[in-house]
Amino acid sequence: MSESLDERARAILLGNDRGGYTVPTAGLYPFQWNWDSAFAAWGFSTFDPDRAWTELETLFAHQWPDGMVPHIVFHRDDEGYFPGPTVWSTGRTPATSGISQPPVAATMARLVLAADPSHRERAAALVPKLLDWHRWWIRARVRDGVACIVHPWESGRDNAFDWDVGMANVDGSDVGPYQRRDTGHVDPSMRPTKAEYDRYLALVQFGRGIGWDQVRLADEGPFLMADPGVAFILIRACEDLAVLAAEVGADPGDAAEMAEGLRAGLDTLWNDARGHWDARDLRTDTFANVLSSGAWLCWLAGAGRPEMEAHLATAWGAVRHGLPTMDPAHPGFDARRYWRGPAWPFYNALVAMGLRDAGKDAEAERLRADTAALIRNGGFNEYFDPVEGTPCGGSDFTWTAAVWLTWAGRER
Ligand code: GLC
Predict the structure, then answer these.
(1) Is the pLDDT of residue 276 over 60?
(2) Residue of the nearest CA to atom 9 in ligand 1?
């Protein structure tokens, strides 16, 4: 059984390969997405390390001069996607979006190198680009000592409940008419609502209006929230980058210092009243007040706390399949709506990486076995209903196939 699932997973990666980059899934997501690509590279490393490095190299070939690595590279036109290049209007060739996505690439590059240490030179060539990107985060997104996002899409957890508090202050009433494409590919009940979408677009229009000046976007834009997910990922990425650089004899620059500085700023994300890591709206200095997926990444940055272990146990007690992306006891929990409840295999892989490094082997193994069962029973879908185990969202998904090959399908 496992063997044929391995074959299926490889076929998905190869089928989503558009020549040098991989689309997350055909139809719904027809371009190159930043963190999806990093996971794709990890997947490719299990059977074609050369192709794995190409994936990362293609992504970084579209890095902006200021160091930003965009969340989407629109390699070729596709009418089936909205908002496309003309809406973003960033002036890049090929077109890209104007925001970034969680910086997992350094962590994935380290894993790709571990799978086949012979590609030292390609890793070494990537190190300065990764450094530039991480420095961009510090310059353009770290405010109040902690990593922030200027658009919910920058978190990679698009419609998480976390962002509602900040989005409440974004005016979406004036965005004009538009035609969504996502709801033509998958069931609208699984996608963000129209009101959310209006505000997403208002933020894109603001960025366009200031010529995508990334510092102004953070300092003057209508939305700025500190994101525990990106905060933990960036700390981990800086640490992994320092190790990767040392392994290949490249200059690690200030990677270790960046990690240290970011760690010092983490305390402002601890919601003491509720006892968990939490997103914070910097415009109104208000916590999101929700136990959400970003918090599950604390172990990845060595920031686990006993309270978080207790929350993990409670969340696991409430659902039967995988890890929910939002507290199942919260009134906003929705088992099928994207980042407001569903379990995502690739995300589970990231959480499990942290749990394992924190010595929580039993929890990491539970998450792996749960994720493997979801995929075995439901297929390589984008995400799953954690209450019923139903496959949801897009099918034949790249990062689901990737984490099957690297993690979920590999019993220890
Ligand atoms: C959705 C997800 C985002 C992902 C993209 C492509 O927008 O929220 O994290 O990168 O799809 O899979």
Answers:
(1) yes
(2) 156
pTM for the whole thing? 0.98
Span 324-349, pLDDT tens digits:
999 999 999 999 999 999 999 999 99
Active site residues: 158, 382
Number of domains in the chain: 1
Q: How far is the CA of 156 from the centre of ligand 1 (A)?
A: 6
Residue located nearest, by CA, to atom 2 of ligand 1: 156
User: Which domain, by its residues, includes 50?
Assistant: 2-408
From ligand 1's centre to the CA of 118, what distance in Å?
Answer: 31
The answer for residues whose C-beta is within 8 angstroms of residue 35's C-beta and 6 or more apart is 101, 102, 104, 105, 156
User: CA-to-CA distance for 299 and 122, rounded, in angstroms?
Assistant: 29
Structure tokens at 361: 């082997």
Per-residue confidence (pLDDT) for residue 412, from 0 to 100: 63
pLDDT score for 1: 47
pLDDT in tens, 173-202: 999 999 999 888 888 888 888 999 999 999
In short, whether 35's Cβ falls inside 6 Å of ligand 1 is yes
Contact 241, 127 (CB under 8 A): yes
Output the residue whose Cα is nearest ligand 1's atom 3. Answer: 156
Q: Are 69 and 100 in contact (CB under 8 A)?
A: yes
Structure-block tokens of residue 253: 């620059």
User: In whole numbers, what is the pLDDT of the chain averaged over residues?
Assistant: 96
* Ligand 1 and 154: CB distance under 6 A: no
> Which CATH number fits the domain that encloses residue 56?
1.50.10.10
- Polymer length of the chain: 412
In the prediction, which pLDDT does 79 show? Answer: 87
* 230, two tokens: 């990106």
